[in-house]
Amino acid sequence: MAGYKNILQIFMLQLIMVTIFSSQTQGQGLKVGFYTKSCPDAEKIVSKVISNVMAVAPSLSGALLRLHFHDCFIRGCDGSILLDSPNNQSEKFSIPNLSLRGYSVIDRVKLALENSCPGVVSCADIVALVARDVTVATMGPHWKVETGRRDGNVSLIAEPLDSVAGLPAFFDNITTLKQSFALRGLSVKDLVVLSGGHTLGVSHCSSFESRLYNFTGNGDTDPSMDPNYIIRLKRKCTPGDQTTLAELDPGSFKTFDDSYYRLVTKRRGLLTSDAALLDDPETKAYLVRATSRRSTFFKDFSESMVKMGRIGVITGSQGEVRKVCSRIN
Ligand code: HEM
Fold first, then answer.
1. 260 Cβ neighbours under 8 A, 6+ residues apart
2. Cα 13 to middle of ligand 1, angstroms
3. Alpha helices in the chain (DSSP H)
4. Is residue 206 classed as helix, strand or coil in its secondary structure?
5. Among 154, 134, 162, which residue's Cα sits nearest to residue 50?
6. Is 3 helix (H, G, I), strand (E, B) or coil?
7. How far is the CA of 150 from the centre of ligand 1 (A)?
8. How far is the CA of 212 from the centre of ligand 1 (A)?
9. Model-level pTM?
10. What is the pLDDT of residues 122-180, one digit of tens each?
């Protein structure tokens, strides 16, 4: 009898998990062209601001793509990453988010939209549209962004650091990375495809310093990294350096291309989490394929971004459309 009860419990638990996961990436209530009637020029307005910003500050492209990822992975894509709080207790003040940039660009887009269609376009949708537009601006793929997200009213400093449901970390191994994505209804393929976002942007030395100077606590280097690359990186990053930036995809960090996969394959992925993609047969096979003539990276990235953009969204009459992205109405 006890055995039967256990099986029933396991079954119920599985059912609950499946329900949570599938609702995570279904994105009910989202659709392409959600603002067609309520703010017909919404997407044009966003694109215009982004092309102006990219003309003067192209190095913000990576930062703006990353914002959408950090928004979606905590509480779903609800703009919670943008909220300020009186005592700096919201998500943006959490350690993994301290290196995020580009909030003022989101504010600029919001201002332009409020001028044309006050109170219509959510901040969460702005972040999603901007992520697409910076990808396009850097020669990456174009995809149709589903819109209709509403903005959430909760943002907590502790959540990005939660040991299970927090953001994946630069030191995570492949097992932990896969779990983190699975928890959001994202597949192993989504993991390797979305990691390709590291074709853009920069990282602080502190995010990979231990690989150069103190991998296991004995002053050693990470044996999984190309020793010549380690020498090069050591010239850039001295121990304890908190400010210097290194390109995630040196040589083309302002261009969205497949060279990130070339680097990782050559054991030149900058972060432990990049190198970890060599430790799983499926992700490893993708790395190799992505640099071949059979590459489907651009198409895959578009699809995975749509999937990521559906995580935990609130729609309909839930939440609100913020007037200012950094505070609730
Ligand atoms: C797989 C798990 C991931 C981990 C552990 C991770 C971790 C990191 C870290 C540590 C940095 C550098 C932060 C710094 O030191 O300044 C970074 C930068 C970046 N990440 Fe990720 N990331 C992941 C996935 C993603 C995804 C899914 C995307 C987007 C699709 C993305 C886009 C970026 C971009 C564009 C940058 C450069 C930001 C800039 O130039 O300011 N990352 N990531």
1. 195, 196, 198, 199, 248, 249, 269, 274
2. 33
3. 2-24, 42-56, 60-73, 103-116, 123-137, 174-182, 188-195, 209-213, 227-236, 259-265, 272-275, 281-290, 297-308
4. helix
5. 134
6. helix
7. 25
8. 19
9. 0.93
10. 999 999 999 999 999 999 999 999 999 999 999 999 999 999 999 999 999 999 999 99
Residues labelled catalytic: 70
Fold of 174-308: Peroxidase; domain 2 (1.10.420)
Which numbered atom of ligand 1 lies nearest the CA of 101? 41
- What would the two tokens of residue 21 be? 């996961």
**Domain range summary for the chain, segments of one domain joined by +:** 31-161, 174-308
| Residue 83 burial by Cβ neighbours in a 10 Å radius (0-12, 13-18, 19+) | buried
Is it the case that residue 92 has pLDDT exceeding 70?
yes
Q: Which atom from ligand 1 is nearest to the alpha carbon of 305?
A: 30
Q: Which atom of ligand 1 approaches the CA of 65 most closely?
A: 35
Using a 6 Å cutoff on CB, does residue 302 contact ligand 1?
no
Helix or strand or coil: residue 327? strand
Query: For residue range 174-207, what is the model confidence (pLDDT) as tens digits?
Result: 999 999 999 999 999 999 999 999 999 999 999 9
- Tell me if 146 sits within 8 A of 252, measured CB to CB: no
31-161 is classed CATH 3.30.1360.120: no
Closest residue by Cα to residue 201 from 252, 157, 239: 252
